[in-house]
Amino acid sequence: MPTFPKRRRIDFAKFDPSVTDREVKYGLPNSVTFCRRCVTSNQKPISAVEFQHKPDSKKQAIHLDDRDICDACRVTEKKTEINWAERDAQLRELCDKHRSSDGSYDCLVPGSGGKDSFVAAHMLKYKYGMHPLTVTWAPHVYTEWGWRNFQRWIHAGFDNYLCTPNGRVHRLLTRLAVENLFHPFQAFILGQKSLAPKMAVLHQIPLVFYGENEAEYGNPIGDNDSAVRQWKYFSAPEKSSIHLGGTSVKDLTTDYGLEQVDLDPYLPANPEDLKSLGIEVHYLGYYMKWHPQSCYYYAVENGGFEASPERTPGTYSKYNSIDDRIDDFHYYTTFIKYGIGRATYDAAQEIRSGDIDRDEGVALVQRFDGEFPTRFADEIFAYLSIPEREFPQASKMFEQPRIDHAYFNNLADSFRSPHLWSYNNGQWSLRHQVK
Amino acid sequence: MVSTTSSQITLLDNPPVLRLIARLDIKGSNLIKGVHLEGLRIIGDPQVHAAKYYADGADEIIYMDTVASLYGRNNLIDVVSRATEHVFVPMTVGGGIRSVEDARTLLRAGADKVAINTAAIKDPTLIKELSDVWGSSTIVLSIEAKKIAPKMWEAYTDNGREHTGLDAVEWAQKGVAHGAGEILVTSVDQEGTKKGFDCELISEISRAVDVPVVASGGFGSLNHLKDLVTASKPTGVAFADALHYNKFSIQQIRQFCIDSDIPTRKAVFQAKTDK
Predict the structure, then answer these.
(1) How many CB atoms sit inside 10 A of residue A147's CB?
(2) Which of A296, A318, A364 sits opposite B70 (nearest CB)?
(3) What is the pLDDT of residue A2?
(4) CB A412 within 8 A of CB A344
(5) Which residues in chain A touch residue B42, judged by CB atoms under 8 angstroms apart?
(6) Which pLDDT tens digit goes with each residue over B119-173?
(7) How confident is the model at residue B75 (pLDDT cuts 50, 70, 90)?
(8) Is A386 exposed, middle or buried (0-12, 13-18, 19+ CB in 10 A)?
(9) Average pLDDT, whole number, for chain A?
(10) Which of the four pLDDT bands, split at 50, 70 and 90, describes residue B11?
């Protein structure tokens, strides 16, 4: 008996423009408020522990204070008080403590070869005299320019381990994440987060550097007080509580034909190993003023980084998150679930960085947010399809293993929350838009 | 005497006078600059920069409104009319011009030429409409070109963000046939990189049309200019990055042209050095 139906029933009455008592999904705040400084809304979930992400999980959303300013904007404000010279001295001290002189690597820089990881690795090596090892968790499906940028990163002077997960397992987990959570990026996030600590253990490199702290994009301010990343994101204490694609490990092995070895790349490092290594995870964004646009300039200047040959669907930008063909869909799904698409993320960041003003940000969101990503759609639907020939057991769990436009649109509709969306004359529209 | 091919000898025998043009891309009230037309960085006040480039002897100023299509209009009327107070060389203004009326507003505000891209791609007869009113010499076709294969470039719109599917060289020819009196060619690949012009692109377009061609995008060192005029026959070169970031002044560039036998207008430079 398939778990996932061919077509999900949508109760359009709940989306009628006249409905006032509106159902709220994902535990999001009932009423929608937009930050007065950037363009983000109080519906934006903050990053959570993906291993516990299930269809009925409740989200914790970004906090807006009593003046309707979001935490991310408050973090930016606080940055003006930071003594960067002092922070730089702290970083030098940290590097001095760890710098190797015996030919071994002394720090690990996980990244994709995008502009931010380019800057992180390049600065550590050429400005701070470190000997970084770079590690990369592969995108679902590389874009050509993303692959070239990844190569340019390595050729700017770094050793790199690229971990590319089993394509079939990755496709299945991604399909499950889409069906259960409408989250096509989850398998990538899981693997990416697990890889660095495990590589640190494997190579016995306790010092791990990331570029920017996620607090920038809306995690609680408290997270930013220490440069050392909280353990909870890394180490799951009990493997039985672990879910991948919203599916328990037990179900994955009994119903979907996966074996333990298929899941290993996604599972977190053993906390005991991390403890005995004495791993320390640091964010360079804590030690230096991190400006995404400047990272782009730096990567062009020092590595020949190329922007993508067109703007990314759903936004105006062509310089960030451009290496994975599935990325367009990641932001499309956040637009469906939370009313927040790629242009909102991009514009909010650029407003905070002082690159654009709020009026321009609002105009950009109104023009681009939520645009359907046509360019790679057929490829991504094929990627998400689970044909019997390739997935003899797992395909039985889907009434329609093949994904097409109609299937995807119906799935999308089933993830819309009535408090955000209205349906009128065959058209979906957001009940609240940034102004 | 260096050995050259016959076509280059023809070029040197009859070289065009190269116009040295300052290009200012504008967003809102700011002069901005990007790399590949992306990552737009705020540079400063366009008035201050335009005045400086004029005083330095620029032959022409180009203003491009980079958010015109976002707001659905050209927002440079104030910038242009203020510039008329202290800039006394031709000004070309582009971005968001979609009708004869739009062009008229900018020309009345003080622009000497208008540059069009998106609207002309949507409806090439607009070029004819405009040139019928003001003459071809007032109408510049702006082409954002990105290389897609050897000797093949696609025309883009929206600051190198949107494909058009048009072949840039064919589009230049078509634009001229419709009445464009000048082509401004911006290489999306080279723009802001300081790695040199896309000489091949400029060469192909200047060979394909018999109107002035302005090369934009890629200037980072003086030798790039030599490479450009050796490989192609532009009538003007636009500088942005080099000027905005104070890497070079128009004076330095002009002196290099004089020293390298690249024909340019000399009057302004000489007048200044006489002091």
Answers:
(1) 14
(2) A364
(3) 83
(4) no
(5) 354-355
(6) 999 999 999 999 999 999 999 999 999 999 999 999 999 999 999 999 999 999 9
(7) confident
(8) buried
(9) 92
(10) very low
Structure-block tokens of residue A378: 């057929």
pLDDT above 90 (res A12): yes
In the 8-state DSSP scheme, what is residue A61?
B
Question: What are the domain boundaries of chain A?
Answer: 84-287
For the record, the structure tokens of A393 come out as: 């057991």
pLDDT (0 to 100) of residue B72: 83
Nearest-CB residue to B161 (from A297, A311, A355): A311
- Could A360 and B40 be called an inter-chain contact, meaning their C-beta atoms sit closer than 8 Å? no
CATH class (in words) of the domain with range B18-274: alpha beta
Closest CA to A84 of A353, A350, A348, A284: A284
pLDDT, tens only, A38-86? 999 999 998 777 777 888 889 989 999 999 999 999 989 988 999 999 9
Name the phi and psi angles at B224, rounded to 5.
Answer: -60, -30
Beta bridge partners of A253: none
- The residues pairing with B42 across neighbouring beta strands, listed in sequence order, are B32
Instruction: Retrieve residue B194's tokens.
Output: 């300081």
| Residues of B labelled catalytic | 25, 144
Contact B93, B42 (CB under 8 A): no
Tell me what the mean pLDDT of segment A346-366 comes to: 96
Residue ranges of chain A whose CB lies within 8 Å of a chain B CB: 293, 296-297, 300, 306-307, 309-311, 316-319, 354-357, 360, 363-364, 367
A291 is written with which tokens? 């400006």
Length of chain B: 275
CATH domain A84-287 topology:
Rossmann fold (3.40.50)
Of B38, B71, B192, the CB nearest to A363: B71
| Residue B10: per-residue pLDDT | 43
- B102, B115, B132, B68: which is closest to B236 by C-alpha? B115
Residues of A in contact with B164 (CB under 8 A): none
Q: Are A72 and A46 in contact (CB under 8 A)?
A: no
Contact yes or no for B272/B251 (Cβ under 8 A): yes
Residue A326 confidence (pLDDT): 97
Nearest to B190 by CA among B228, B243, B231: B228
